[in-house]
Amino acid sequence: MRKILIVEDDESIGELLRDYLEINGFSVDVCTNGVEGLNSIKNGEYDLLILDIMLPGMNGYEILKRIRDEKDIPVLIVSAKKEEFDKIHGLKLGADDYITKPFSPGELVARVNAHIAKYERLKNKYGNNNITSITIRGLEIQKDARRVFVNGKEVNLAQKEFDVLLFLAQNPNRVFSREELFDRVWGMDALGDAATVTVHIGRIRDKIESDPSNPQYIETVWGAGYRLRT
Questions:
Q1: How large is the average pLDDT for residues 41-63?
Q2: Do residues 75 and 32 make contact, with C-beta atoms less than 8 angstroms apart?
Q3: CA pair distance 112, 4, nearest whole angstrom
Q4: How far apart are CA 172 and CA 32, in angstroms?
Q5: Interatomic CA distance for residues 160 and 225, integer angstroms
Q6: Which end of the chain is less crowded, N or C, counting CB atoms within 10 A of the terminal residue's CB?
Q7: Is 175 helix (H, G, I), strand (E, B) or coil?
Q8: Pairwise CA distance, residues 176 & 146, whole Å
């Protein structure tokens, strides 16, 4: 049984989501404040996190920053904050999806199922490749272990960040448009849009490049897309 943590200060919303998810076969824990939520996600084993932003004790953005390098699971932000800045900020911090309130509980359940299925499909897909490690200059990607090292020092990538980097590394020197990357990594039936790719590329560069403004690994080919240069 897949296990989900909901961190939501509105108890009525939290209980409603728990009911919908449990009906659909999930095991669900609910936390109503940020500190409790952070402790639960750090100490527990969950398959997906549903995270509100405006929380007592610690906001959702801070929770996301603290756990994203440690937990490689899908994170769905559910928030009343509807501005584009808030959505982009959440994605930059490592969220996989951003849903604004009010929303249909049925839609949320569908997104939960979709993100868990895609996460497991991608892990299985990459796990079947015979190449277990890719080294490009000072960059080493350990596929099966899902670990990345730059000049011998490990860097922590979130789930989709690792998937994007691995895909580019498995297809070096080839240019992919944002739309192609979105289709190949997220899947053609993914919930979201290609703008997510730009956010993830920026986060990867922040972690693997010595100078993200002058990248030596993932290059932008203006008007065409991105490539990982060997």
A1: 92
A2: no
A3: 9
A4: 45
A5: 18
A6: N
A7: coil
A8: 22
Predicted local distance difference test score (pLDDT) of residue 103: 85
Burial 131-154 (b: 16+ CB within 10 A, else e): eeebeeeebbbebeebebbbeeee
Structure token pair of residue 20? 């919908």
Q: State the average pLDDT for the chain.
A: 87
Residue found under tokens 């900020």: 89
What is the model's pTM? Answer: 0.60
Can you tell me which residue has the tokens 């039936």?
Answer: 189
User: How far apart, in Å, are the Cα atoms of 19 and each of 31, 41, 77, 103, 173?
Assistant: 14, 20, 18, 15, 48
- Pairing of the two strands 75-79 and 133-136: unpaired
In 58-122, the DSSP E strands lie at 75-79, 97-100
Contact yes or no for 185/166 (Cβ under 8 A): no
Cross-strand bridge partners of residue 227: 219
Tens digit of pLDDT for each residue in 7-50? 999 999 999 999 999 999 999 999 999 999 999 998 888 999 99
- Per-residue pLDDT at 128 exceeds 50: no
